## 1
Amino acid sequence: MGIVKELFSWSQAVMSMLLVQIFATGMQILSRIILVEGTFIFALIAYRHVVAAVCVAPFAFYFERGITKKLGWSIWFWLFLNALVGITLAMGLFYYGLRDTSATYSVNFLNLVPIFTFTISVICRMERLCLQRWSSKVKTVGAILCVGGALTTSIYKGKEFHVVQSNHHTHSTIEASKTNMLRGTLFLVGSCLSYTAWFIVQVKLLKVFPLKYWGTMLTCIIASIQATIVGICLDCRKVTWSLKWNLQLITIIYSGALATAATFCLIYRVIAIKGPTYPAMFNPLALIFVAISEAILLGEPIRLGILLGMVLILIGLYSFLWGKRKETQCLPQPNIEAGQVSTSMVVAESAGVHATALVVPSSSPNVEKTDRN
């Protein structure tokens, strides 16, 4: 029975993470198409997170019913900052970068988010780097390889490889949209930095408000309001905000329901079964899925520079995760620190999922349970 139970648990975790990467791939491809066809970015962010909030609400009311936590000004401040830094700013910059580059190129940068977080944590002395240990050496080499892969992707173009030839209108539109790779790269770097700041903000938020579903739902609602205000300031035309029965509406529902709400629940379940480092091992699948899908469905060429950069990033990411895992096994388990920030958030975002997930440690303080009447 023990072997059967373990096998079932393993297959459940694998299938869950495969679904997460498939959802991420679909979101990247759909978002790329509608953005180059003129969808207003802040309208997409606002509508998407309304859908996400609606989808997460039943989980908040069911799983966290009977748990009370007063929403003081401090909590509202951190929820506001969480939405501003991690969604309105980070996702806005990512979408601008995605529009100016390609889905494969953008996902390459998302895999760098854990590296950015690690680097900032070391610089700010929130995480110790002990180069006397093999695990720390491997982790550092992995980070260097990831940065080298990103530079290779950005600087070196190389020969183009076409998987299929397509004359479809979508392919023509996407080709015409590639106007500024440099600007797109700067947007993507800014997005990575914003996500890094987001993970640090979540350390504080988890301490003052450790209700994962309520935190996710409220963050989505606040982010929608923020995106709406920013969007109206940039473009208040009715046509910009109108929704029709087209690919834009499908992308909004898909992104909110699957790429945010469902992804959050799947990742949280996998972490509960296999631990926080397990989901990160599947991140590179999204990169591979997106590259293949973009080449086949959109007729996008795969450049040699992107392939080389992809290989370096994959090797570097696995090395980094292996070193991090070994380091975690050797160290005592303290309370959440900024250097050990919400692993599942890094998992989700570095895979290009944008799951607005708040993962609570096993011992969450300051939560009062009340009797259910």
## 2
Amino acid sequence: MTNKFPENFLWGAATSAGQVEGGWDKGGKGPSVLDVLGGSIDGSAFRIQTHEVKPDVYYPGQVASDFYHNFKEDIRLFAELGLKAYRMSIAWSRIFPNGDETEPNEEGLKFYDEVFHELKKYNIEPIVTILHYDAPLNLANKFGGWTSRDMINSYLNYCEVLFTRYKGKVKHWITFNEINCLLVPFGILTAGAVNIPIKSEENTKKIRIQALHHQFIASAKAVAMGHEIDEDNKIGCMIAYMCSYPLTCRPEDIRLAQEHDQIKNMLCGDVQVRGYYPRYAERYFKEKNIELQMLPEDEEILRKGKVDFYSMSYYMTNCIGIEEDQEMMSGNLVIGAKNPYLKATEWGWQIDPLGLRWVLNNVYDRYQIPIMIVENGMGTTDIVTEDDKVFDDYRIDYLSRHIDQMAKSIEDGVELIGYTPWSALDLVSLSGGTMRKRYGFIYVDTDDQGNGTLKRIKKESFYWYQNVIKTNGQEINGTKLNQFQ
């Protein structure tokens, strides 16, 4: 079958500022909540967050891949790769070091001026995430992050500066990365609530959902503002799609999977795309004894701030069922039952390309707006040979099979407009804080403790993806290519 992608399809790749930039204290930047997120001991457990920078703790995001000092070389490599789009984020604390200043940091704004200039030079379209988990540390300590409604005005001041400064340079914006992660325990960190430990699913649920409401309001107001400043702006939501199949055909398992899909995946999309809380959310809040603190105008704000497109991350699927004795798998911030029909990565993430087709159809049938896949990829340990080559055929296999399902989804009628796999180059993994869990098309010579030359090395997948983009997705079978010739 010949894969049919639109001629203007946005083939790209993705990173985030807090995981790739480094330069955490350069150019007037203030610390973010990711700058004080230390690496875990074994690279698998969630990391420990502190309230301030401590001299005896290694914070991997403070140097990361050092895109801050190497962005011109990196963007040149992106151009060689053939990228038509680069999904990136802006570091809020590079623009407002404390998050609540009245005037922005001009040096930080100039840095992104230069990034956008380089991207334009190579005809690479930026897709910009406004907040990718890295709120200014000062606001986290001052307000408790998004648990406080006081965050909204600071965020909107930040958005106004971005929309105004980069008008005409950025067309596609995403208000919050993986906003629905506030619905899982890890979300207390993405909310910037550095003072509240993760103890269980329940101990932070009420404050996480209140924080989610604050982000909904901030997002809706940002959408309205962005359209007013530039009517050409396209502003989207971003959901971490946590797909869970029923473990069996038992009706109780099917209902449990449906409820999981509604709460973990569709609730946020329903609010941001449709502009109101769905009825099933009322039942869920009542069962969990949650009373949202809402202002009278909030419903109107949500109605007026509906997004233009839907974007998502998709990495894996799990199963869900009522049986207590199940073999469990964890990955991408969620835990679920093992699917006996799927293989998994070395980090336990179950590989399910066909699941992507199911998800795309499920989302498009519900919302009927354009969709982007802005994260999809395989984290692995990559080996560099003596002659500086990285043979990552496993990554090629993973991505090619997902792209094939994307093509089938387009034939199904899904309006898929872009694909930016994670990641353009190696970066700090979010959960473990390591570099050895690598996703990039470009290898970065640094280890879990920041040792290395930061040299960039093009992997086998670099040349494969280069050909995928060149042929607009018609040639995805990496086994037919001699990548390093």
## 3
Amino acid sequence: MATTATARAGIKQSAGKSRAQISQLSTFTWVGLDKRGHKIKGEYQSKSVGLVKAELRRQGINPQTVKEKAKPLFGAAGKTIAPRDIAIFSRQLATMMAAGVPMVQGFDIVAGGQNNPRMKNMLVDIKTEIEGGSSLNESLNKYPVQFDELYRNLVRAGESAGVLDTVLDTIATYKENIEAIKAKIKKAMFYPAMVIAVAILVSSILMIFVIPQFENVFQGFGADLPAFTQMLVNMSRFMVQYWWLVFGIAGAVIVGIVLLYKRSDKFAHLVGRGMLKLPVVGEILRQSAMARFARTLGVTFKAGVPLVEALDSVAGATGSVVYNDAVKRIREDVAVGHQLQLAIRQTNLFPNMVVQMVAIGEESGALDKMLFKIAEFYEQEVNNAVDALSSLLEPLIMVILGVLVGGMVIGMYLPIFKLGAVVG
């Protein structure tokens, strides 16, 4: 028995070493001649130049130059792996598996087409794990950031049911839809944020550089300045002398709010509820949360994930702290035997239409279809609301900028107008 245990430990240790060695492979670029004497080139991952040359000769290629690929100046990690990259990978792998391509070969093909070194290394590592006997779900566990719990649960369900290609295709569609919603929300927030930033920058430039020039002119008038102009001059003096303090305090406040939001659940809830109460923007965030809730739950339920387990994955996908907690309460109610529609109603966060459609889905046995209908409806609502917000904000922002910058310009020219009246 001791010998058997020792042997097993040795096998595990050697397997671990093998995986560690494979994960440390270097990338080499090569140039060679094929059997017809034509020059070809490519890349190959291996431990040494000699092994690359041997592999090329085995394939009938006469290697001319083989050298290790130069690493980027700031490291070889490459750019980060975006959700869009994961969606594309899922779609490609699903297409190849549906066409009968073995999974390991599919990983080889997808990895070979990657321009992002970090993405490529991750896929090679996952492929190595699968070759070592691990399932796809187990292999993905090494990368919980790129493949979240929802992704892994869906893959596990697909592997268990033997429909992994279908599930991967569903995941790709799901991620594309979710990223489209995120892009809409970012668009709604980005435009006003940028305009506010530009307004602050322009005002600061006027305060620090332009108004002091006018102040020098005003000093030769020998008369009292209008109250509004004097206020602007006083503000300008303060900005010139303490601009570093103003920007320092502003930066510290922003950093403090971000850190407090991440570390304090109470503050995060306060901000979350406040955002949902904002006019127009709050409604967009609410509709987005419901769309993401419905689509995520629909995808997991359709893949065969049990409802209680599916709600675990849905909680983190709503994009809202408030709805995150609501989904956790829904899960607790469903776990003790309540119907999903009743649990949703108890949160007082979902409109009656959502509750009724979920109830119909439960009664008819077509819950996933109803959830997809809800998701489509609210995704369209988000699109319409973002377009309406953009149309509403454009004239409003122009008015704000006009009042802000125009007010400063008028304040600076008031003494000149006053002097002209006196001279006249």
## 4
Amino acid sequence: MSIIVDNVSKSFGSFQALKDIHLEVKPNTLVALLGPSGSGKSTLLRTIAGLENPDQGRIVINGKDTTGVDIRKRNIGFVFQHYALFKHLTIRENIAFGLRIRKSSEAHIKERVTELLNLIQLEGLGNRYPSQLSGGQRQRVALARALAVQPEVLLLDEPFGALDAKVRKELRAWLRRLHDDVHITSVFVTHDQEEAMEVADEIVVMSNGKIEQIGSPAEIYDNPASPFVIKFIGEVNILPSHAPLFTNNNHFGEEIFVRPHELDILLEDDGNSSRAVVKRIIHLGWEIQAELAVDSWELTAHLTREKFDRLQLRHNQTVYIKPSRVKSFREDSVAV
């Protein structure tokens, strides 16, 4: 089922949360709304769900204009950050809740709940209560409850935000596998760029109520459309264009952006590099982070363990650096 957000705007008093948003979500895709707090991503999700009404524009789901349609008639599954499970109901009863509201037969309810318990890998725990489950298990139950009524669209608002880092990572992989199994059009809100990159087919980067860029994780990372996107997605070194590292380059804009893994470290000047001093070496397990000083500027470089072992870097060592790739933007935010 497709979703079209057609030039939607939404204000709360004098604050404009959404500004002329246009977005098309393709059928059976998993799309992330990514941005910092206050960017409008949760407001956009709630507007798609019908929890908020737009001041202008339309929400079209599966070819039908649902703007103003009661949320109970939109056939949407919604998963909240804090589970919102009924504490006095068992896991089976929680999953069955929506089906009972729709007056499904007891035979259908039993069959559907059993199917979903298997899908979320909680077979045998159906008679427990939410308080008897871990946070990750409770969030899986919340997802199962949303899927029970076979919605056309699944919406998730920071679904893993209340969980610790290890459980979040496990559930991200699980959500991706679940989506590939059930093939439902899904939109989820997150401020975690790693989460969006790992899970989503497509990422919608938002800032100040507007969409900055839409694209696959690779497109967003490798070809950011604006300074905001390159600063928000992944680590990046930011230097003025007159810094020594770029004196031989003709760039537009006042700032130059270099990803840490695109900064090469040499032991000798090759005639096209800049002198730097190693200020700190950080072992991150699978890679090494080197913090460098170039005149009055500080940069970060990421090296593989193999390259670090070959260079034998040490504190206060003089090295030479050059970027393998740089990014800059004209004033109209066109990448160059």
